[in-house]
Amino acid sequence: MSVGILGTKLGMTQIFDEAGNAVPVTVVQAGPCVVTQVKTEQTDGYAAVQIGYGEVAEKALNRPKLGHLSKSSAPALRHLREYRVSNPSEFELGQSITADQFAAGELVDVSGKSIGRGFAGYQKRHNFKRGPMAHGSKNHRLPGSTGAGTTPGRVYPGKRMAGRMGDERVTTRKLSIVRVDDERNLLLIKGCVPGKPGALLSIAPATIVGQQVGR
Amino acid sequence: MNAEAIIRSIEAEQIKDDLPQIYVGDTVRVGVRIVEGGKERVQPYEGTVIAMRNGGINESITVRKIFQGVGVERVFLLHAPRVASIKVLRRGKARRAKLYYLRDRVGKATRLKQRFDRPL
Fold this sequence. Notes:
By secondary structure, chain A is mostly beta strands.
C-alpha cells in the first residue's frame, strides 16, 4: 500500500522514547479519508487513487463536486488529492483510508503550505549577509550588486531579490513516524512539518532516491 | 476534541504527578538514571535551583553546584524518565526568578538564606 493520506496539523509537543530521550514531534490528525476515484491505465492512462478529506456541510460545495463525490457515496469533502499507485485494483470506491496504514518507524514525506511571510527582504528570503550596522555604514540590509554594468545592461533572470516569501507548497522529506494512534487517527511525526496548526497536510510514504516505491 | 486537548492527552501519559513543589532557590537532590556497561543505576546530583521553566511536559529546572571548585550546572526535564527522583532538601530565599548572579560569586557569597514558611 503506497497511497498517502491527508491530514491536519494539530501542533507540536515532545515525548520521551524508551531510552529516555526527549523527541520533538508534530501531532497530525490523519484522515479518515475516503477513496473517491480510482484511476486505471485503461480509463485514464495512468494509475492513481483519489482520496478526499475534511467533511463540510453540503452547501459549502458546488454541485459538480457533490456529483463527483456521490459516485463513491462519500460525504461532502473539502479536499481531494490523488496518489499514484502501482496496483489500483487494491482500492475500491468509498473505501476508508485511516492512519493505521502507517507504522511507527516508517519514513514519510509531508507536504503542505509553508507559513506566508509576506514581502520579505534579502536577508530573510535568500539568507544574504547584511552590511555593517555602524561605523558610518548606511548599507544595512541592501542587496549589494545585482550584476555587471553596460554589458549586459540588464539584470539576469533569476537574480535573487526581495519578494513574496512562504505560502507555497513545500515538502519535508524522510520524517520518521514515532507513534500511530489508530483509535483517534493520529500520527506523531518526528520533527516539524510545513504550515501552522490547522494546515492541510499530505503524508505519503517517503520517496527514496534510486528506489521505486509503489510505482 | 480540539487540537490542544488532543496534544494535552498525548502529553498526559508521560507527565509525572508526584513531583514535589519546587521553587527557585531551593536545594534539591535529583536522582539521575544512568546506564553504565549495560547496567542501570541512579546517581544523585545535589545543588541549588537557579532557574525554572514551566511548560507542561517541557518543564525544566537548572541546578547549580560547585564540584571540586568548578561550577556545574545541569538542566533537568522534570518529566523525563531519566529523572528518577527529586527531593527538596532545603528551601532558600530568593528575590528573583533567575539566580544567574550566583555564577559570578564564589565561596560564602553563593549561600542563600533559608526560609521556613514553605514546607519541605
